[in-house]
Amino acid sequence: LIPLAYQQVPQGWDPSFHSLLASTTVTTGKLPTWRPFEPIDSNYPYGPHVFLAETSLLTGIAPDAVFAVLLNALLPALAGLAMYALAWRLFHRADVALGASVAYGFLGNWGSFQYGAWGGLPNALGFFLVLAFLSVLFTPSGAAGIIPALASGCGGRYSLRGLSYGWRRILVGGALLSAIPLAHHHVMLTTALLLGVFALYLLARLTPLFPRLPTPQASRREPLRMLLRLALMSGVALALVAYYAIPYAAKIGQLHDTSALTFYDDYSGSFFPKNGNELWALALLGAALIGWDARRRWRRQLQHTTKVASAGALSLPAHWARRWSRLLA
Question: Are 64 and 8 a contacting pair, CB within 8 Å?
Fold first, then answer.
């Protein structure tokens, strides 16, 4: 809320661009285009602009003021809650989840409340949807609590009007995933790359060459269940967003008429500092601690396996000696 105390909207051309498209949507009552300024359509994902326009019409607040409240107050809070939910689902520790949420909220230079410094509302909305989708994706099938309650309308694994929690989770996850292309195209590409790598990892875990993880939850079936869940959610997302994605993809042939393939932002040399040196330091430290803990669990599993194998090998001579003694008796 601090930025709202000294400026109505974030500085820069991003807020002006998005507020302009939201204003034209309010004025015309149609999907955002460059009309009446230019007689051309807008290829930018229209989800945030339509959301701004709808909120403005319902509340009577100007689109730029709605932009400021969403970017500086509502979305950072929702993203922090989604980060907490995702970290808790992954690590099953409230302290780790709280640390992840606080680190994202206060140390990320390009994220959380720092979005107010450059006005990236569609980017903020897109990554909130990514965090919410991942929270639903990694929610265990029989889990009870606030996340299943929010995702499915009730906790636990039982039916509601014939629709089980597993299928309700797939529908909710698919709906969240389908909203990402409508929010921001860069976030859409990042999500596709992330999920593609994750799917390859799950496929690798299905092969006999991939070692079994020494955790109680790990099994040969879990990667298959997760892969199936991801595939079903992706199928639901594709079905819901097809009306937008198919015409959008049909415009690929028009790229040569634009500068999209030649223009780029040069971020060389600024990747680490722009994202926050403190956040990178904590992330690397956390990764090292997770790796150390995994190594320790692998060592315990190896020691246990060695003991069992040694005991079995030592018992074989006694077994065969008893067997031969009975045959010779």
Answer: yes
H or E stretch at 191: helix 185-205
- The number of beta carbons lying within 10 Å of the beta carbon of residue 198 is 15
* Residue 31 CA: distances (Å) to CA of 147, 182, 209: 33, 12, 51
**Residues 191-212 pLDDT 10s:** 999 999 999 988 988 887 666 6
- Tell me the residue ranges of DSSP E strands in 131-195: none
Distance of CA 243 to the CA centre of its chain: 23
Q: Would you give the end-to-end CA distance of the chain in angstroms?
A: 90
The pLDDT of 165-178, averaged and rounded, is 88
Cα–Cα distance for residue pair 175/155, rounded to 1 Å: 19
43, 48, 53, 57 alpha-carbon torsion, rounded to 10°: 160
Residue with tokens 């105390």: 5
Q: What pTM was computed for the model?
A: 0.75
